[in-house]
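Batch job 17 of 40 flagged for manual review because the log was empty.
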Amino acid sequence: MGDDVETLRAELAETQARLREAQGELARLVRLAEADLQRRRPGEQSSVVAASVRRPAAKDVAARIARLVQLYREALAASPNGAPVIGEDTMLRWLETSGLFDRDFYLTCNGDVASAGADPTQHYFNHGYAEARPPSAL
């Protein structure tokens, strides 16, 4: 069981590192786009903005969170008598404090979740990750 916890912690740490990397890349692109906008002529499209939007970073972060949830579910299924290695409430707290999940973003992008009055973190943990719903803007 301790190995499962360590695996989950390692996955979370790696995902957080990738998010920091993606945020740094986004900040770099914003700086380049601002400089490009100052240089370009009126009516001309920004070459930096057009060429540098990186959707794979968002997909990569979502895939890593999904993998974290899958590891949790696998550990739960493999444990004797179905007792969780880590409580689901702990997993939800990790998800919320990781900086990888944005409650407001999730509700804004998923009107069905918002209109149902569902808890966004709980919904993502139980359904959203498997449905490839984005957990945050990145």
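Reviewer: the log was empty due to a logging misconfiguration, but the result itself is present. The first helix runs from residue 2 to 39. Unflagging and moving on to job 18.
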